[in-house]
Amino acid sequence: MPALYRSFETQAHFDAQYNPSAALPDPAAPGRHFVSLAAQARAQLPCILDVPFGPTREETLDIFPADAPNAPVFVFIHGGYWRALSSKEFSWIAMALQKMGITTVVTNYALCPHVTIDEITRQTRAALAWTLRNIQNYGGDPTRVAIGGHSAGGHLTAMALQTEWQADYGLPQDPFAGAILFSGLYDIEPLRYSYLQPQIQLDDRTIRRNSPAFSVRPCKTPIWITWGGAETTEFARQSEIYHQAWQTADNTSELHAVPDANHFTVIAGFESADSQVCRWLSKHLQV
């Protein structure tokens, strides 16, 4: 049987690598954990929810301001393979950061198949542009903004980093103080042969436009590319090829996995101000 992509011959081969829930004893457990923590965050932290940044209902973001004015800012872009979840499951990202004096913004976007990955990328860029232009009205410092995302959010973070911010948005070309990419997808071609294809509807041109490993531009933003040490070899490969492309463009990046983490626990560092993730953000945001 001829290979469909690299050495993969059947959908089962792709699904075994790219369906991270399948290997869990209880696939719904991460979602329950996220929802519970998120509800606590919204109940305990000051927050401004569902702030519109664009014309459609899904184009909103949630802001969790730090207590002190002129605070550094972290913008989190959620995952869900572009076809699931919302900002609301990830309010908890703000809990440790708020204690550190960092304002957190969690973005929302419309989902496939209602919209395309191209449109989700546009919405993500619009959310970031809105944040850079408006976060000072919520006590944030627009000169100290870092971004990050998980899974599909890691992909969208990479798409944000290749944006021509000056030419397309009239903003500084490299407006972010740092970026963390968790278990991202940077070559999306293999997903067209997976269980996801009926919803995300990839074709050749969509793949070319939305595979950031092959369109890295020179960028001054330092980044950390990471994934879970217990994840599949394809998630490791995705991170490695993006790191190589980023460095080939003479950009600055770190590449190392979170030991023993799976696809969902890889972002657990946001639960503790003492974690490597929070320390990395603190350093690059000059907290």
Provide structural commentary.
The chain has 287 residues and is α/β, with parallel strands linked by helices. The protein has a single domain, classed as Rossmann fold, CATH 3.40.50.1820. It has ten helices and eight strands. Strands 1-2-4-3-5-6-7-8 form an eight-stranded mixed beta sheet, sandwiched between helices. α4 packs across α5. The relative contact order is 0.15. The model has no long low-confidence stretch (mean pLDDT 97).
Question: Quick gist of this model?
Answer:
The chain is built from 10 helices and 8 strands.
Q: What is the highest CATH level, the class? A: Alpha Beta
Measured between the Cα atoms of the first and last residue, the distance is 55 Å
Portion of residues within helices: 25-40%
Largest sheet: 8 strands, mixed
Shape: globular
Q: Secondary structure elements and their pairing?
A:
Elements: H1 11-18, H2 29-44, E1 48-52, E2 60-64, E3 71-77, H3 94-99, E4 103-107, H4 117-134, E5 140-150, H5 152-161, H6 165-169, E6 178-182, H7 197-200, H8 204-209, E7 223-226, H9 233-248, E8 253-255, H10 276-284
